[in-house]
Amino acid sequence: MTIQAPPGRRIKAVGLISGGLDSTLAARLLLELGIDVVGLHYSTGFCMNDHRRAMARPDEEPRRMRNEGLRAGADLGIPVEILDAGEEYLKMVLNPKHGYGKRANPCIDCRLFMIHGAAEYMREHGGDFVFTGEVLGQRPMSQHMQALRTIERECGIEGYLVRPLSARHLPPTRPEELGWIDRDRLLGISGRSRKEQLDLSARWGIADFPQPSGGCCFLADENFAKRFHDMKEHTALERIRREEMILLKIGRHFRLSQEIKIIVARDEAENRFLSRFERPGWRFEAVDCGSPITLADGEPDTDMRRLIASITARYSDRRAEPLVEVAARNGDREERIVVPPVTDQSLAAWRI
Amino acid sequence: MNRRHDDIPVPAPVQVHADRRLDTVGLYCPVPIIRTSETVSRMSPGEVLEVLSDDRVILIDMPAWCRSMGHGYLGARQEGGELHLYVRKQERPVSTPAVAGKD
């Protein structure tokens, strides 16, 4: 079929490219149809690859740290812009209009945020429609029929949001009605099976993509979600910044009281990261031995500082000794606390 | 292949005259790429940007970004703990479809 482009130019689609298989296939399908494609890749601050990279563990596999959006753009031969979602995204995550999924995942609001951004990009830089790699029925919260319609309506681009992988299950879009896209060549994939996507990727020689079931968003992670909801419960929302979100990804977290929470680093990489993390408040470290850095949220009194010291001692190399000396520092103030390491039974009650 | 973080190869040293320099040392992904993109957008075609970084994975991301955007990746060299990467700004249409025109 010949594309009926607006006079004098080719059709251009602006799409969300996570670098996962679905968005890669959606872009590739549009390229097959002779449409120019520009990809947008959002940096949300919750990407596991970015976090692995910040930790810079020496034994980490490079493929698990690279930016998948850039990799997909390079493989497809399309420009991919990286956009920083910024504080606005965090505000949405803290107070999503459509609520959370099973964890801390505000999937519908997240899609709205990104598709809004793509629509804005399209208006500023020129483009004819927006596309995504969404698949009808693949995800329980954001990809059922009602959610797909809500997203399109609330983004204000009704008729101009194309889901090439599931298009034949959905009403025709304006680009199809105008003859820019041949509907018959769009796909009718639905459901959670990835078989059709894997067949397509084999046919098109797309071999390098992250494992579909892996997931790469902290907001959908069970442990992160517990910490996230604990923070929301104990902190005024307007005080929560991106820095707090970074700390939710690191270490063991213990809620000791309504006001006091501590973070205990788990390994050398986390220690290195926390030692560079500039933040006011108490820091604890066992003396003259391998020790985690422990950060305290809030203003611990003397008894509380003893408890935090004993937890720090529990994770130090001297955990088997009856008494361990721990240094507690807050700005210019330093004190030494000698304590027995806390028992594991006590720890369980405080763990988030 | 299960490559380790420290095994990401640094390409053979390059000698390139840079027209501009961008220091991203200490910044985490993807900020160095975002800053690179902003800087390159203000440069003229043919000019070379030198990007400083201490993030080894940028040796994977920067060539990918250049391929995606159509710019030239000229290579990198290591100086102590810092990497110096070189990008030549090139011009091309916004999108050059890889498989268009089959119909």
Describe this structure in words.
The complex is a heterodimer of chains A (352) and B (103). Chain A has 352 residues and is an alpha/beta fold. In chain A, 37% of the residues lie in helices and 15% in strands. Chain A contains 13 helices and 11 strands. Chain A has a 6-stranded antiparallel β-sheet. In chain A, helix 5 (107-125) crosses helix 6. The termini of chain A are far apart. Chain B is an alpha+beta fold and 103 residues long. Chain B has a single domain (11-88), classed as Translation Initiation Factor IF3, CATH 3.30.110.40. Chain B has a 4-stranded mixed β-sheet, with helices on one face. The A-B interface holds A 1-2, 12, 28, 31-39, 43, 49-50, 53-54, 56-63, 65-67, 70-71, 73-74, 76-82, 84 and B 2-8, 28-31, 33-34, 37, 55-57, 60-61, 63-65, 67-70, 93-103.
Strand order, sheet with most strands of chain A: 6-7-9-8-10-11
Q: How is the biggest beta sheet of chain B arranged?
A: 4 strands, mixed
**Arithmetic mean pLDDT of chain B:** 83
- The helix/strand series of chain A, from N terminus to C terminus, equals EHEHHEHHEHEHHHHEEHEEHEEH
Query: Radius of gyration of chain A in whole Å, from Cα?
Result: 24 Å
CATH topology-level name of the largest domain in chain A:
Rossmann fold
Uncertain ranges of chain A: none
- Envelope shape of chain B: globular
The shape of chain A, in one word, is: elongated
What is the CATH topology classification name of chain B?
Translation Initiation Factor IF3
CATH superfamily of chain B: TusA-like domain
